[in-house]
Fold these 2 entries.
Entry 1:
Amino acid sequence: MRQRNGSLVIAGGRPLKGTVGVSGSKNATLGAMAAALLVPEECVLQNVPDIGDVDQMAQVLRSLGATVEWASPHVLRINAAKLHSSSPAMETASSLRGSFLVMGALLGRLGEASCPQPGGDVIGQRPIDVHLSGFAALGADVSRDGDQFIARAKKPLEGATIFADYPSVLGTQNLMLAAVTARGRTRIVNAAAEPEVQGSAEMLIRMGARITGHGSHTIEVEGVERLRGCEYEIIPDRLEAGTYAIAAALTGGEVEVTGACPRHLESLTYKLRDAGVGVEAAGDRLWARSDGELRPLTIQALPYPGLATDLQAMVAVLLTQAHGVSYVHERVFDNRLLYAGELRKLGADVVTTGTTTAIISGPTPLHGAHVQALDVRAGAALILAGLAAATGRTEVTDVYHVDRGYERLDEKLRSLGAQVQRV
Ligand code: EPU
């Protein structure tokens, strides 16, 4: 099994150069794995990233009775013919936020499900009222017993109009999973439009579901009696692609990112160009190059198609090298600037006002420091900061967070000329 622990030691100050391939999307894979629970036939997922969160989701599915096997690298076979439980194992499910998606799938397939309160990264309050009130609108009895949420349908679920208080990514996917076999039509109003939600809808359509409007903020689902197994290719990871584009810009390098979907990254590429980074896209390729002065930016992390919150920390690191004062507003989560304290250890001039705005003055020369990866994206951001630090060595600890979401990040960075070692 791949090593997913330890620290990364980085000797920065080298421009990244070369070509790097993008893996399948972490978050789209979690949705696809949950969808496979809806049918007794096999589902075969292609382009699956080999990352910690996928391993953990596989454990969650196995704890329900599904078999989950790697057929070959990046191809996952899931067979949920013999589910023996409607409640995933507490230890694995509670620490993986995406595991809560099994709730909608099990409710649709078995008419009942119970799941622990989902944990996940420390990035702010993460309520699940959108999921729970949606299940209730479809006719399920929703209750709580200690740490477990329980949803039970005494009769078949009935389609309904559901107004989501917030366009929650997992909430929207969970409601689609529950609604695809409900009787009649469901409308999810104020649905999330993220590409990962579109990916889930496309896999469900491949399984025989009738869904329209995915990718917009109103999704309609016409319930069907039966779904079938399918083969489905996971969409490229836009966040990984964005990470390499930002790394190129930050180190004054030139990187070609292949196997990406540039359309999913328009908000980032627009902002990078605004900062003076050369960005081009064609087909499934993206080029990012920077050799001049970076301009400061004001950015806002927003639901799609706004700038992804999952790229916010990395853009902030880039802005430490911009000439002037930048403003970073996090508008999705209420506590996703915790990395700022770690970034200051490398010499960045970052001031936070409250928990959602950071003011960054640049450029500041970064120097190596000992820092901790606090979550998957904050960890990636600190690794990028280490690559930009021209003096000293940076050690990023708790790299397992990063390995949960990035396939071989250290190896891929090395292939671009970075000096990164796992210790
Ligand atoms: N929210 C509500 N009510 C709900 C659910 C969410 O108010 O019932 C609010 C949250 O408080 C938060 C905002 O909605 O402020 C966004 O939460 P959302 O539910 O959309 O996030 P999520 O579905 O839990 C997924 C990704 C995250 C990504 C967010 C936003 C997965 C497994 N996780 O989380 O990914 O940041 O959408 O795009 O799909 C990551 O990959 O690093 C990561 C954290």
Entry 2:
Amino acid sequence: MKLFLDTASVTEIRTMWNVGILDGVTTNPTLVAKEGRKFEEVLREICALGVPSVSAEVVATDTAGMVAEGRRLREIHPSIYVKVPMTSAGLAATRTLAGEGTRVNMTLVFSANQALLAAKVGAAYVSPFIGRLDDQSQDGMDLIRDIVTIYRNYRYPTQVLVASVRHPVHVLEAAKLGADIATMPFGVMEKLVQHPLTDLGLARFLKDWEKVPKA
Ligand code: G3P
């Protein structure tokens, strides 16, 4: 399973990249706005680290505008995946961009039928937002289960990128269901590493080591 960071913070990305557990990065307009920096500059810095998959979202809402923006974004670096929203215009734009060889991440997906459409137009990734479904009293993980089943039924190559992840149990459940990717905030990825028994165990080992006679 691939683990992505859902952030536009180069500091956070560099930290996890150096740990060696990071497979990619997803950004969105909200995350980019938080950084207060130029979008393209941030994208170039992330790509320069060597991150192999970096999703950058279009903000146009019409097909022609999305295609034009997508073409510009993919020129920035070969690691760029163009993120396109799940609308009729977005589906048409995805078909065009995918037909040209651009890898598209279809975002803002909240139903299995929307995911089916994303696969049909050739999206490389589909991004179901599970945390936002949970917020609406609907189990987001049920959506992941349905999408994984549908894609397996028809052998669609589109990868399921679980987004709007809020805690480590989301990652665990997504992995058990066979989702391809989970993208998460920095804090959630940190929690994947940590366990209080690891810290306690290490402290005890180091304390006991002090009692071992040294040469
Ligand atoms: O990048 C899209 C998605 O992961 C956003 O998550 O927490 O704003 O619902 P959230």
